[in-house]
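Morning!

This is the sequence you dropped in the shared folder:
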Amino acid sequence: MSGHIAQDWEPVVIRKKAPTAAARKDEKAVNAARRAGAEIETVRKAAAGSNKAASSSTSLNTRKLDEETENLTHEKVPTELKKAIIQGRTEKKLTQAQLAQLINEKPQIIQEYESGKAIPNQQIITKLERALGVKLRENDVEIMK
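The structure's back. Tokens below.
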């Protein structure tokens, strides 16, 4: 052990960071600066406290929406498809939950298709055709043999 280990007795000084911009705008900081006699400048922003920037840009979009006359809605399940699914399911003596399990979908999806609220999805319709043995696509609904 030839090396001599010495302890460093130099003082360590830890300083706080300079205040951030948000902290400088804080009411406490402003009052402290006033007491200290520092010069304080207050500037009022032009659109402070109002949402004018957002409302002015939406007026164009609002006008376009008001002028739009086309009725935009999702495509719904046709009545013939609803009836064919219900008929095919009841002929196989399946519940909605059992049919859903057969096609690896949630029971809620079968419920939506049978109530006509679902947005038609060709993949799900194909699964239903296979599980029920019924042709569901095209306007003519017929039993597959």
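Headline: The two ends are 95 Å apart (CA to CA).

More detail when I'm at my desk.
O.
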